[in-house]
Amino acid sequence: MAERTLMLDDVRISLGGTELLAVDLTVNAGEVVTIMGPSGSGKSTLLAWLTGNLPSAFAASGRALLGGTDISNLPPEQRRMGILFQDDLLFPHMSVGQNLSFGLRGPDRKSRIADALASVGLEGFEGRDPATLSGGQRSRVALMRMLLSEPKALLLDEPFAKLDAELRGQVRDLVFKHAKNQGLPVLMVTHDVADAEAAGGRVITLRS
Amino acid sequence: MVRLLVALLLIGPVAAGLVGVVLPAFGYFPSIGRTTFGFDAFRELFMWPGFVPSVRLSVTTGLGATVLAVIGASLISAALVGTTSWQRLRVMLGPFLALPHATAAFGLAFIIAPSGLIVRLLAVLFGWDRPPDLVIINDPLGHAMILGLAMKEIPFLLLMIIAALPQSDFDRRLQVSGALGYGRIAGWFLTVWPAIYGQIRLPVYLVLAYSISVVDVAIILGPTTPPPLAVAITRLMNDPDLAMRSKAAAGALVQLGLVMAAFSIWWAVERMCRAFRNGIINGGGRLPSAEVTKPFGKATAYAITAMLIMGIVIAALWSVAGFWGFPDLLPNSFTLRSWARRDALIDAGMETVLIAGAAVVAALLIALSLTYTDRKLPTWLLYAPLIVPQVTFLPGLQTLMLFAGLEAGFFPVLIVHLIFVLPYVLLTFQGASDAWDRRFAVIGAALGRSRVSIFVRLQLPMLIGPLLGALAIGFAVSVGQYLPTLLIGGGRVETLTTEAVALASGGDRRLIGVYAVAQTIAALLPFVIAALLPAIVWRNRKGMTHG
């Protein structure tokens, strides 16, 4: 079980001596845990710490264990910690295929990229310019790009906030479905109650 | 580490140069056996009959050009921001900025001289058969020089205004002021301009310091007997009699004093304008008459565009002109003879490209290492070498080199060029570099990519357009340098600009035309490449085309 869990062991983050947040939490494989709280409560700061991008003004203590390994002191690129933001952040100078290839690990690259695109209804999109895609299509490419890099956990930073209401439900279901299929522990930060309800897992509320 | 080195590079020569003028100005000049401190150099300078008129000229031309440039840029932006004319003008601003001052000055001379384009048009109209006997260029009051400086500084200020616009919230402010009954121009000056001016203040002071101390434009368009102080200092520095150097050093310090005095005058002018504006706001007048400046702002934009472009066109015509009689609008015959005197041209061209190329490569390496380490330099540091007049610290640097027995030549010139190239490259590039969304790097790392890979494959390709643009500006800045090349090169480094300015007194219009065209090509070609290259490389990437 430890192989597929994300464990936050007594994590405390402070700014200038003031404690912003304290979290002690285990996210199991295939589980989505939602962290809610007003802006300024340090939700995104926690994700920045988990990905290894905490600005130096902050101080953090505690450990993050991913599949039993302490990743707290690893460089960002070795953490296998996937993340999706509210913007798709597709690399504008690369084609859709190159975007996926940039993250993909391992062999059989062409066929795996084709399969990944097909699995989200984007067959044959390899050569497309990301700027010509619709918002929903771009979100799907961003999701597959992250999954092809074979992360061991997935972080979601208000990932659906910029999608319009109709699209939001579809993309949300798609992200949760794929994360569950791959047995990823998912930690989602949001201030949208509907996101938390759709996730169907535990909800942790941070105070401001 | 990089930042410390760059800070030393930008501040070191300026500080050393200041020491190098203070010592000889107060009598310490061992190279000619003077080691006692005193005020002889200043006394000699003040005794020179031209001293007071040349100081007066420096102040009037410098302040005049700055006033004209600020009024011009504010009227143009008031009339045009948000219109299609503004979009068209925007495209031209980069090349206008890149054009060396000396080239623009020659271009203006070709237009307004008694035998220039404007008089020829009038002559055709009124049937004159000889040019009027008027002193227009090098006029004793410096009007031609003021015009030439303002024409070149307005595009610079407009670029700074463009950078300041996003934070000024101009469209909504204009809507609100419009709803309150203010016309566009009144609304602009009462609600938008204060926000913009706050951000372009440093560049405005830069224009003032530059205009009051400029040498090349003054040699080409300015009064000659006496010339503005900066030109007089340059002449003294080039005097074979080394004793003249202490007088020059005293002049260099007076020049610094002039700049500071002009700064305080400008500061007082700013206060008065603010008080004036507050008076209008408190009075609540809607100033409907302000709208009459609108066509004037538009006309200024067109006039500057026309003068800068026509100046180069006429320079190009002169460079291939055979006989060109007055008042004909085109040469009577064409010849390539002026281009055939090639050796000096090719040597100067090679030297220009070599220096500019090396300076730009150095600036590129510095910009890249700052970007890679995610560090930036404070703006004041970048402005420091631009605010202190060249004609104040370069003579000092030359004198120090003399003390230390350092050879003048290519390498010192390169270093001094870099002092001026680097601030422009970094000021231009840092904006785009700051605006790069750091979350791309977070995504890259989450995908398992190293910092180097993120830098090379994500950050650089996405910033290549702004980076090339900044380097092109840096190249043009180097091409346009006159005084650094002249003083630090010790007469041994000859670039297109030093050669061109040297031609000013000779009046060989064909050869001036050749050098003006060569300067234009050297300054603008990198610009064209920087604009086209990303557009070609990213032709299939819509998300990259806005820059």
From TrEMBL, chain A:
Query: Which SMART domains does this chain map to?
Result: AAA
Q: Which Pfam families match?
A: ABC_tran
Domain ABC transporter, chain residue ranges per copy? 6-208
InterPro entries membership: AAA+_ATPase (IPR003593), ABC_SmlMolc_Importer (IPR050093), ABC_transporter-like_ATP-bd (IPR003439), P-loop_NTPase (IPR027417)
Q: Which keywords does this Swiss-Prot/TrEMBL entry list? A: ATP-binding, Nucleotide-binding, Transport
Q: Which domain of life is it from?
A: Bacteria
One GO molecular-function annotation for this sequence? ATP binding
Name-wise, this protein is ATP-binding cassette domain-containing protein
UniProtKB/TrEMBL annotation, chain B:
What domain of life does the UniProt record list for this protein's source?
Bacteria
Q: Fetch the PROSITE patterns from UniProt.
A: ABC_TM1 (PS50928)
Q: Which UniProt keywords apply?
A: Cell membrane, Membrane, Transmembrane, Transmembrane helix, Transport
Q: Which residues cross the membrane?
A: 57-81, 102-128, 140-165, 202-221, 248-269, 301-324, 344-368, 380-404, 410-429, 460-483, 512-538
Q: Which InterPro entries match?
A: MetI-like, MetI-like_sf
| Membrane topology summary | Multi-pass membrane protein
Where in the cell?
Cell membrane
Domain ABC transmembrane type-1 per the UniProt entry, residue ranges: 345-533
Chief subcellular location: membrane
Q: What is this protein called?
A: ABC transporter permease subunit
Recorded source organism is Marivivens donghaensis
